[in-house]
Amino acid sequence: MIRGLCLICLPVWLLAAVPGVAEAQWDTPNRAFHKATAFPLEGAHQTVPCASCHLNGVTKGTPTACESCHWERRQDDVYRLRLGSNCASCHTATAWNAVKWNHGTMTGMPLNASHQTVGCDGCHKSAMFAEVKVSCLECHQRDYNAAKDPDHLAAGFSTTCVSCHKPSDTLFTQARFDHGQFYPLLGLHATADCAACHQKNVFKGTTTTCVGCHLTDYTTSKDPNHIAAGFSTTCDGCHKNSDTSWSLGKFDHTAFPITSGSHAGIDCATCHTSSTTYATFSCTTSCHDKPTTDNNHKTVTGYQYVSTSCYACHPQG
Question: How far, in whole angstroms, is CA 59 from its chain's centroid?
Fold first, then answer.
């Protein structure tokens, strides 16, 4: 009220001359009025000039859909609505770049590690984003084909990349291959280089039998001589893949117990004196002298100082 007059009764030109009213910009009450409309001005919209949305001063009927301004007029969407027209599902009124869209929730493919820095078009080559399959090979076929350490194609590795590589890995070299599904890597095998078994970078078809890799070790062994002894080439009968040395081999001497008493721990050559075969043995050469043995068998009928006779009467030692 000014001297009994109501401000709303005065013409606009007169209001402008009224002290305290001229300073109040007309834009301010208009923005306050916007709160009661279907499109409240929030975030960055509060500082946008009215004319940006209300073209040619026309306010009635101005569309409130996001894409009406951000695509039809401003063309802010670099993806040309290929991600949909509901801008608010990803963008907030605070800032156009404050994207809240969750790639993992929406697609099932979380953007971890190196994937976070890849531009959308790094995976989404075509104009249709929905057509991109959540499959490593869709993007990494070239990486699979070009891999040489090891050669994935030659090895026949699965194209299900996540069986070795994880989306959270920052490098391909962080892969963890489960060798146990083919052959457990224990003992010295755990530290052996891949090429020690996989010659010339060939992985597919590599034998899992011991002698397939260790035939030379078998044929050159001298303590004892495996060939002379007629030992089986099924190496794990004595040697375990968890052994860290060949000397840890444990031969099951089922024909004669050597695990207890005076026979325990003696060297093979003590009894098996032949350098060509372990089928023969001697009880008399190094251990049981004739005078002592004869004296111990004075009352034994049919006694003979012969190794085979010793074994015939004392098969258990």
Answer: 58
- Count how many domains the chain has: 1
pTM of the model: 0.46
Q: Above 80 in pLDDT, residue 124?
A: no
Rounded to an integer, what is the distance from CA 253 to the centroid of its chain? 45
| Least reliable range by pLDDT among 38-52, 79-93, 217-231, 295-309 | 79-93
The residue segments making up the domain with residue 275 are 261-313
Task: Please indicate, yes or no, if residue 46 is contained in any of the structural domains.
Answer: no
Residue 309 domain flag: yes
φ and ψ of 213, to 5 deg: -105, -30
One-character DSSP codes across 64-114:
--HHIIIIIIS---TTTTTT-S-GGGT--SS-TT-----HHHHHS----GG
- By percentage, how much of the chain surpasses pLDDT 70? 87
Question: What's the full length of the chain, in residues?
Answer: 317
Q: Which of 274, 284, 290 is nearest to 311 (CA)?
A: 284
Give ∠ CA 242-248-252 in degrees, rounded to 5: 100
